[in-house]
């Protein structure tokens, strides 16, 4: 019978290594961005959001309300800054509201 090693790892460390080994970082970032958008903007904006996509450091938000699109366009830089801070990485450099 072999002796078991008593190394302990946290779940977070194991998940991070699994994500890196299986090249899932970009997919996880896209999920995190969508969750963060809904959390940061609240239910009022989330109900008028039809899609959230992250492509090449550009966050593309598709909205169903032209009034909301115009209103959010005034605070693009602030939205980018808040999203990056919440995510913990600078993965968004441009915001497109369509």
UniProtKB/TrEMBL annotation:
Pfam families: DciA. InterPro entries: DciA-like. This is DUF721 domain-containing protein.
